[in-house]
């Protein structure tokens, strides 16, 4: 077996096992990739002798990540963010570089090594931070935008850093640095102009023609080609490949193909990013790491504290909220992936001792490893730093009078909850809403709405608003799991109240009914009913019959509406697959097992499959019972889960 193929096979095997194990215990996949790299690296199993063999492929993951990021940041948006990018971002890079370089010079007494260390530690991990911001839905928050702005400038700042490091080793460094930087700036401006022109005048026409062909493979290939060509073009001019990919994504971010491009690039990006983190883990020298673990831990804490304070002060002077300023600083505490590139380049030019370089890699790996956990718990970690202000804000919330129970409780005051509240107010029905969003409650109370601040899943909050005595409770949360949690808490206090629960779809309908819901109202099915009522009304059907049909559908818990025909775009998420209800038509051929048999003989109920209808030539049997006999040529419409339908089809045809 080819050696390289065997290495990749082993890497994939260990990555699959570790990612599965880490996700089972609710840890980020990035940690699994880092551990996989450590195991496969030279210090443990030595499966991979030289991690640099995979450096280029891993770098493509960063390129595709920056391309995806560029799709989210159009040029107008980039111009609008210039204050944060070139203010907060530039300030962080310059100040942190000088501080870290100064500390390194005091420690080592070598100003060239100190400059390398200063620039390396000033950078943060675009790959890890962007990925975690996206997964935790913080990318569009104010602190997320501030964080991304700093990361963008850091990626730009990598370019002069990559130029300066070789010049630091030259004798005439002072002259060479300024000349080379000037040339680099001219090159960068030229590349940006060329890419912007291509993006504005060429790419839209290319993707329009590709879209007309309706060939998914061609669209994917074109997307990859654009990202890599843009990265290759900037690399050709001595700039970062990631910068070119970002510019390409930003050019296409304004097109109508933005979401399709993002969906196409995601699988390649995630796989290559995983390989990138594996190569990072391989670079960790375990012997140096364990011997200097106390110093590495101290370095991570000091670096993080300095970055937090610098970002907090800069963001504060720019008018950012205190919580957002601290949060952005906390998210940027780690050393970035480009730091490994700078360390490797410095070793090539003998600007850093080997042991110092190994410690820097240890600092980077440890910082990256804990970054996902830090970002997930950013709010809790920042809370002590702004606690005084947070308490002050909460005390400003004027809680409504809850001395007497209300007629109706509305749990969740989002758009749906607010709509319900308005109708109840118009009808003069006494009610109270509960929500845990501080800003929303403040705005609502200021506008005269009766909203109580608190978590509706907490028993003490529910008792305070007399949920145990209310006769009608409406749960309007957009998240089904949150609604289910609140429903269970209510039923522990109140068994007799009518509880109407809003749900996104019918995936959790039965689970909510089993938990005690009086009625579950799925958004997707109710939207279908509203469309049906409009269609029937415009078709001349009497309003009385329409209302009767709608009422019948709701009373049967949307029984006839469950199940749908799957398509290529159907979400086949493994966590959802067992709860989906599909429709599938099975035609009975001459040799089918079910021909000539009654439905009760087949026992399809035992396979968790229902027969919705049977079509025989031109006749449709919409209601079939146990004594219905199936004939040759019948088309049987089955309803059930994907696996159940497969089993049902096999049984009907083969027995």
TrEMBL record:
GO cellular-component term (any): plasma membrane
Domain RCK N-terminal, first and last residues per copy: 405-522
All copies of domain RCK C-terminal, residue ranges: 570-654
Topology of this chain in the membrane: Multi-pass membrane protein
Entry's transmembrane regions: 6-22, 29-48, 54-73, 85-107, 113-134, 146-169, 181-203, 215-230, 272-290, 296-315, 327-350, 356-375
GO BP annotations, alphabetical order: potassium ion transport; proton transmembrane transport
Keywords per UniProt: Antiport, Ion transport, Membrane, Potassium, Potassium transport, Transmembrane, Transmembrane helix, Transport
PROSITE patterns: RCK_C, RCK_N
GO MF: antiporter activity; monoatomic cation transmembrane transporter activity
InterPro entries: Cation/H_exchanger_TM, Na+/solute_symporter_sf, NAD(P)-bd_dom_sf, RCK_C, RCK_C_sf, RCK_N
Localisation per UniProt entry: Membrane
Protein name as it appears in the record: Potassium transporter
Native species: Pseudidiomarina aquimaris
